[in-house]
From TrEMBL:
Transmembrane spans: 15-36, 43-61, 67-88
Protein name from the UniProt record: Uncharacterized protein
Keywords: Membrane, Transmembrane, Transmembrane helix
Lineage: Bacteria, Bacillati, Bacillota, Bacilli, Bacillales
Organism per entry: Oceanobacillus piezotolerans
């Protein structure tokens, strides 16, 4: 989800690249902590570290993305949010 959020924000606000990278990284780390926290401490650390890298890479893709990639990333954001809600509810 970090790549998807970073891609969307990077495509919408390409002039504010540094701020978008920081925001996408923080959002990705929070999402990774939520998913990882559902299992155990090791999964929590894995979720945070992998989403850290995804949050940094997302805006790089978003600056050069076309409309197809942005649409696909928007779909991924909604799908991941739905999976998160379903997994927390269960």
């Amino acid at each position: 989800m970090g790549i998807a959020v970073g891609t969307i924000l990077g495509a919408v606000f390409p002039a504010h690249y540094t701020l978008i990278t920081v925001i996408a990284t923080i959002v990705a780390m929070v999402i990774g902590a939520l998913f990882g926290g559902l299992v155990d401490y090791q999964s929590l650390l894995t979720g945070i570290s992998s989403c850290l890298m995804a949050g940094i890479m997302g805006p790089m893709i978003g600056v050069v993305a076309d409309i197809g990639m942005i649409s696909f990333c928007s779909f991924l954001v909604y799908l991941t949010f739905g999976l998160l809600c379903f997994s927390i509810r269960s």
